[in-house]
Amino acid sequence: MKIAVCVKRVPDMDARFRISADGTSLDEAGLKFDINEPDAWAVEAGLQLKEKAGQGEVVVLSLGPPAVQETIRKALSMGADRGIHLAADRIPFDGFSIARALAAELKDGAYDLILFGKMSPDSSNGIVGAIVAELLDCACVTAVSGLEMADGKGTAKRELEGAQEFVEFTLPAVLTVDEGLNTARYPSLKGIMAAKKKPLESRPAQLGEPMVTIESLAMPPDRPPGKIVGEGAAAVPELVRLLQNEAKVL
Amino acid sequence: MDDSLYFGEQHLAVRNMVRDFAREEIAPTAAKYDESGEFPWENVRKMVDLGLLGIPWPEELGGSGLDLLAYVSVIHEMAKVDASHAITISAHTTLGTSPIFNFGTQAQRERFVPLLASGKVLAGFGLTEPSAGSDAGGTRTTAVKKDGRYVLNGSKVFITHGGVGEVFVVTAVTTPGVGTKGISSFILTKETADRAKADAAGFGHDDSLPNTPGFTSGKKEDKLGWRASDTRSLNFEDAEVPEENLLGEEGQGFLNFMQTLDAGRIGMAALALGIAEGAYEEALRYASERRQFGQAISNFQGVSFPLADMATEIEAGKHLVYHAAWLAEHKKPFTKQAAIAKLFCSELAMRTTIKAVQIHGGYGYTKDYPVERMMRDAKICEIGEGTSEVQRMVIARQILREMRD
């Protein structure tokens, strides 16, 4: 089985974000970056499928500036076989551009499965996997939290509101991975040593013209200050009145 | 220290992995093991799987094939979260495995290092005795050669992994009356004292290692800190060791363990530095969140200045530790720098953890926050693997010798 995993380099979301001077991007100074966590689950899924089959190849792709090679190396240190870096000045916001570039790279690769994380928290689009499936004309299952492969077909579990859905899909297929499918392994020291020697090709990303661009970024408005209406039972009527008339939650 | 001159891309990858692992897997369990004093077999199993028990040894001997700087950064990162787990790596690697790797015959290296570097079994180092600690030359344990075997009698105290371990390097007097020149070292094996837990964890025992009759471990020490680390006495009552388990030559024991302790000091310095940095990070976070007088307490100089002092000293400690490691890695003399790093960082760990508890106020004195454990864990750094007084002796000897030369 030949498996591609597409991974994204994302900032640590616990950081305090600042908007850079151009007004349309994050100021990356002082931010820590790592592989997007759902993408790490996708890498883990690929590795487990390969290990279970006892053969196959896991290829990791990432699009962006040279720094994304570090993200690819991390996936290689987890155990992926080789990496492909699609070079671009920055990771575009436009999911279609990214998907187009990935599809151009993936289409002649004879992959049985193409795995993505469900979404990345920095852009919250969650569309690249689905568009790649469309461009490659193959099956697509999103938000997969369980996976079985047998006889050239797959069965995936999806968590719905209050229910679980099981879908069968044909190969080749694009899957986007949700929480619950697995826990990503830590790279072992041997894995980190081995990653250094694994092939990592770099070529320009075929992005094309973006169809969506960021006009402006803004920090969320400050929360209005809280109001203390009084103390004890005496304050209850006024509190109820405010909750009804001002907050309109009662 | 992210772009330090000492670190390459791989060092950073190792450090990032260990930082994540320590934060996600070790930190949530540290208080539990501190409380119970149990050896954390399940956690150590995860450390074995990641290759953390054999960091600097070559891959062909079962190690991870990294260098001393990677090793030091792992100890540093682990200790930021929990000193007991860090000392497990340190004692196993520099004290238990390194003498066999450095001074062993080809046969000894091939026999023991793969078992230790892969983490299949745990190792320890027996030097300190009831009446020989800082004065290692006062060793009383004897080894008498008889029919192609050495017969050992005596005891060792405060031995890390004394119970859980299976392979030990211990010192004993082979030629009485000639002082340190009469000390030799031996490789001894026994079955782990925690066999059931070792079997459940899937490591810690190997059938090929004989259980030496007369070689036993004593009761587990109930300690102030490092409580999840297994510390016991070792006892030898006519313990017979085959001749081929003599490590190096007869009379070389003192010289060998002096070299072992030299290198071990860098790891201990990194461990102490990690405790200091871990406590500092806790204090920094707490001071930014805790509000008094209508604002974060970090706004008060009484709190922010100690934090600034901690940050300054920790930065200095990093340079001492990684420079000493770099010297050792590049086979340059490092005795003085290692002792300086160990002395400075041990005392730094004590100072910093006391300040961190103070910044936490009453909460810092409770087990709801990790800083009280860090304060208890820090103290032994000023004692173990050479007290601060011994470090000063080593440093003084070095600087006075340099002046004479």
Plain-language structure description:
The complex is a heterodimer of chains A (250) and B (405). Chain A has 250 residues and is an alpha/beta fold. Chain A folds into 2 domains: 2-204, 3-Layer(aba) Sandwich (Rossmann fold), CATH 3.40.50; 223-250, no CATH class. Helices cover 26% and strands 27% of the residues of chain A. Chain A has 6 helices and 11 strands. In chain A, the strands form 2 sheets. In chain A, strands 9-8-7-10-6-1-4-5-11 form a 9-stranded mixed sheet, with helices on both faces. In chain A, strands 2-3 form a two-stranded antiparallel sheet. In chain A, helix 2 (68-78) packs across helix 5 (189-195) and helix 3 crosses helix 4 (128-136). The mean pLDDT of chain A is 95. Chain B has helices at 9-36, 41-50, 68-81, 83-103, 106-117, 195-201, 253-289, 301-329, 335-360, 371-379, 388-404, and strands spanning 123-126, 142-146, 149-160, 167-173, 183-189, 215-220, 231-242, 246-247, 291-292, 295-296. The mean pLDDT of chain B is 96. In chain B, the strands form 3 sheets. A 4-stranded mixed sheet of chain B has the order 1-4-5-8. A 4-stranded antiparallel sheet of chain B has the order 2-3-7-6, covered by helices on one side. Helices cover 52% and strands 15% of the residues of chain B. Chain B has 3 domains: 3-117, Acyl-CoA dehydrogenase/oxidase, N-terminal domain (Butyryl-Coa Dehydrogenase, subunit A, domain 1, Orthogonal Bundle); 123-254, Butyryl-CoA Dehydrogenase, subunit A, domain 2 (Beta Barrel), CATH 2.40.110; 256-404, Butyryl-CoA Dehydrogenase, subunit A, domain 3. With 405 residues, chain B is of the alpha+beta class. The A-B interface holds A 34, 70, 73-74, 77, 186-190, 192-193, 195-196 and B 9-10, 13-14, 16-17, 20-21, 49-52, 55, 59, 64-66, 70.
